[in-house]
Design brief:
The protein is an alpha+beta fold. It contains five helices and 14 strands. It has three domains: 99 residues, Elongation Factor Tu (Ef-tu), domain 3 (Beta Barrel), CATH 2.40.30.170; 63 residues, RNA polymerase II/Efflux pump adaptor protein, barrel-sandwich hybrid domain (OB fold (Dihydrolipoamide Acetyltransferase, E2P)); 116 residues, Helix hairpin bin (Helix Hairpins, Orthogonal Bundle), CATH 1.10.287. Helices cover 42% and strands 23% of the residues.
């Protein structure tokens, strides 16, 4: 080959290659109103409210679980011991309050005091009779003043003994001071609250599914220790699937929140649709150049569309093609 023709051949080859690449790239650009994307799931991460060792977990990834179904349980021995302690504390506080609000003496002791009161009353009756007789004799000058004074003194002593027995019985029937009773009542309320809290803590060691969904991932197994709030099971509710796709800047204005789009993928049903729920205000790619008409095509915006009920056939990560359902505005 002539050396003069070699540069021409090289330039021709470069031109052909560049042309091939250009047309190949053009063939990969989807038409207006058709966008590439993928399915993303909004997962529900379920973990225990209190940490501990996982006792039972009989799930398998892919299982469908209903809302309220038991997902797993955490070892409850420590929580049950705590509940027993609070129940015992409540019983002690209740007994203390009953003791303070009841009589200070036992019924047997009160009966003894009542018997002593009966004797005091009998002694007083006898002293009254003797005083009346001595007073009559003293007025008639039959007895001396000394005998009258002795009878009067015995009467006063008998009356004082009766009054003392009555006060003893009244005191024995009285409860404790009101401030002690109020403190005991507060202790009972605190013990009841601690017991109720321990009961709630025990029930929370059995973790239920908060929503209907499919088990996507099991992060811990039976026998492993988890912290409070640490996710153990990952659920995907059927209504928490969305299509994520990216729209060039030149077509960004054609999509609006609430509009319907059609979803297509390999082996998918033909009637899949979604509703646009989010349009990003910021471009995913912003090259550091002046935004000419050609450069604006490099800007793409993230769009999210909630899938309809038929979208339950799709899986997170699955690639899809999004078509505008109606004419572009």
């Amino acid at each position: 080959m002539s050396k003069k023709l070699l540069p021409v051949v090289i330039l021709s080859a470069v031109a052909l290659f560049a042309g091939y690449e250009y047309y190949r790239a053009q063939s990969l650009i989807p038409p207006d109103g058709v966008f590439q994307g993928y399915i993303e799931g909004e997962f529900v991460l379920v973990g225990p409210e209190q940490g501990g060792r996982i006792k039972e977990l009989d799930l398998t990834e892919g299982d469908d679980v209903a809302k309220g179904a038991v997902l797993f349980t955490v070892d409850e021995r420590a929580a049950r011991e705590r509940l027993n302690e609070t129940r015992a504390a409540e019983a002690r506080a209740t007994a203390e309050l009953e003791n303070l609000t009841s009589a200070q003496q036992r019924p047997e002791q009160i009966r003894i005091l009542q018997a002593a009161l009966g004797r005091a009353k009998a002694d007083l009756d006898l002293a009254v009779t003797n005083l009346q007789r001595q007073a009559d004799l003293y007025r008639r000058k039959v007895t001396s003043k000394e005998h009258f004074d002795t009878a009067r003194s015995n009467f006063l002593k008998a009356r004082a003994a009766r009054d003392e027995s009555q006060r003893q019985i009244s005191y024995a029937r009285m409860p404790a001071r009101q401030n002690l009773i109020n403190a005991a009542r507060s202790a009972v309320e605190a013990a009841k609250a601690a017991r109720a809290q321990a009961e709630i803590a025990l029930t929370k060691l059995t973790v239920h599914a908060p929503v209907n969904g499919k088990v996507q991932q099991i992060l811990f197994r039976a026998g492993e220790i988890v912290a409070a709030g640490q996710p153990v099971v990952q659920l995907l509710p059927p209504a928490r699937l969305k299509a994520l796709f990216f729209v060039p800047e030149t077509q960004r204005a054609s999509l609006k929140k609430g509009m319907e789009v059609r979803i297509a993928c390999d082996s998918c049903p033909q009637d899949l649709s979604a509703t646009v729920s989010f349009l990003s205000r910021d471009a995913e790619f912003t090259p550091p150049v002046i935004f000419s008409a050609e450069e604006r095509s490099k800007l793409v915006f993230r769009i999210e569309a909630r899938l309809s009920e038929a979208g339950r056939f799709l899986s997170p990560g699955q690639p899809v093609t999004v078509h505008l359902a109606g004419p572009q505005s």
